[in-house]
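Q: I'm building a small set of examples for a reading group on sequence design. Run inverse folding on the following structure and report the sequence directly after it, with nothing in between.
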């Protein structure tokens, strides 16, 4: 599918530059391995992860209109690698594109605030696309398979999509929001075996973590237990917030549910880049709370 070098305006988000630094590293490594050019939007702001609109929808729309406008200045699609960022920024993009015809006064208000701060206006001239769906629609799994140098044969991977990726936007042209296959197709493209379980399309519990911690951890624990029961060697997620609840807090989750867990949780670009010959160290696999050694040992590292 790839006929020329793909280029994106890369929106790293906050979590991948802090608590999940390995996601930032592995996204860059994967892009290099696939000859994809990423131009980082270093002036971009946090998308708000859905919290801005609790105070003001205008705030969420204006902040993210600015993020999209930064990509528009480059005439490039805005690429995310976070389900939550995709859901928030993508939904803002949908809403503002609708406003161009249905509520132009609102869009004028948003652009007025941007102009007041010396920012470029939102034009609605690009798209917001998660890394997963860029690989699906722009690169293609067959092209990914052609780059594989170490097939992940025998590794059983359970996807955890993140609810924002699947159902935060009105339209999901790349996959079925209730019965998706993009992640499972990603696993197949690198030789791994997809594991299906009920929780793969549900919420990880992260949005509840700050005010209903026990319930949040019970949700996360249930998903991890289901994946283990279905034979998974690891969870793989395209969302760093899901990763925080499923990996970073897994020891706490285990205490809450009263059961041992110990299931490694990988970021999507880590898994694919491993199959493309990138070393575990370059991908930050030693940074995880739950050790990834069982995964690496199964793959012969």
């Amino acid at each position: 599918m790839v006929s020329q070098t793909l280029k994106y305006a890369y929106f790293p988000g906050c979590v991948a530059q802090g608590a999940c630094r390995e996601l930032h590293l592995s996204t860059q490594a994967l892009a290099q391995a696939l000859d994809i050019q990423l131009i980082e939007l270093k002036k971009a702001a946090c998308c708000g992860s859905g919290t801005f609109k609790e105070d003001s929808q205008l705030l969420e729309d204006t902040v993210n209109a600015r993020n999209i406008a930064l990509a528009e200045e480059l005439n490039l699609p805005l690429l995310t690698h976070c389900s939550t960022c995709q859901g928030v920024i993508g939904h803002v993009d949908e809403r503002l594109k609708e406003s161009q015809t249905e509520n132009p006064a609102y869009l004028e208000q948003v652009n007025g605030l941007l102009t007041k701060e010396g920012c470029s206006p939102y034009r609605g001239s690009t798209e917001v696309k998660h890394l997963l769906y860029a690989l699906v629609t722009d690169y293609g799994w067959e092209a990914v398979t052609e780059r594989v140098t170490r097939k992940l044969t025998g590794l059983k991977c359970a996807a955890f999509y993140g609810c924002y990726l699947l159902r935060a936007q009105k339209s999901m042209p790349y996959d079925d929001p209730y019965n998706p296959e993009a992640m499972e197709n990603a696993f197949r493209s690198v030789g791994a075996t997809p594991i299906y379980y009920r929780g793969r399309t549900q919420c990880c519990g992260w949005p509840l973590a700050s005010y209903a911690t026990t319930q949040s951890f019970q949700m996360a624990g249930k998903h991890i237990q289901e994946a283990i029961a279905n034979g998974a060697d690891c969870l793989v997620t395209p969302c760093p917030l899901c990763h925080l609840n499923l990996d970073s807090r897994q020891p706490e989750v285990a205490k809450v549910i009263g059961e041992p867990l110990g299931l490694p949780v990988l970021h999507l670009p880590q898994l694919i880049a491993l199959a493309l010959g990138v070393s575990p160290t370059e991908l930050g696999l030693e940074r995880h709370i739950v050790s990834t050694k069982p995964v690496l040992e199964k793959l012969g590292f």
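The mean pLDDT is 95.
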